[in-house]
Design brief:
Elements: E1 2-7, H1 12-24, E2 29-34, H2 37-45, E3 50-53, H3 55-61, E4 67-71, H4 86-94, E5 98-102, H5 119-133
Parallel strand pairs: 1-2, 1-4, 2-3, 4-5
Helix pairs in contact: 1-2, 3-4
Length: 144
């Protein structure tokens, strides 16, 4: 099972996702894809198996993923202050992988019908969904 985590900017959300995945699905292969080297490095420090940076890495790697996790920005062209290219967004959206996207705020998009939970609660929901998709018991280890 290959789980791809995508993040940009400083990679702090991706770092948190990788940390939570390691706690909840320790046997998964976690591949991190950063829009820049700092984001990739930060996510690698959280315990990812492999990591790569940039548009071509994203375009190639998302096709080998079973699950892709990131903020909703990963499917929005030119998001993350332009770090996420239209090519990246298109490749991620077109990937056959299951996407688990955190509904974090984006300056030009309002999501209707989504509760505005704090990030730790969103992480709990994401981990529960990952475990469900993998057919694992729903005993999610919560962030403390």
């Amino acid at each position: 099972m290959t789980i791809v985590v995508i993040d940009g900017m400083g990679g702090s959300i991706g770092h948190q996702i990788v940390t939570r995945l390691r706690e909840n699905v320790p046997e998964a292969e976690i591949v991190v894809l950063g829009t820049n080297a700092i984001a990739t490095s930060n996510m690698m420090k959280a315990g990812a198996n492999r990591g790569a940076t940039g548009e071509n890495a994203v375009k190639l790697s998302v096709n080998n993923a079973d699950i892709i996790i990131g903020s909703i920005s990963v499917v929005i062209p030119d998001s993350m202050m332009g770090e996420l290219t239209p090519g990246m967004a298109e490749a991620i959206a077109a990937s056959p992988a299951q996407k688990i996207l955190l509904p974090l705020s984006h300056p030009h998009i309002d999501l209707i019908g989504v509760t505005h939970l704090p990030l730790p609660h969103l992480m709990d929901e994401a981990m529960a969904l990952v475990r469900k998709k993998l057919g694992l018991p729903q005993e999610v280890k919560e962030d403390v």
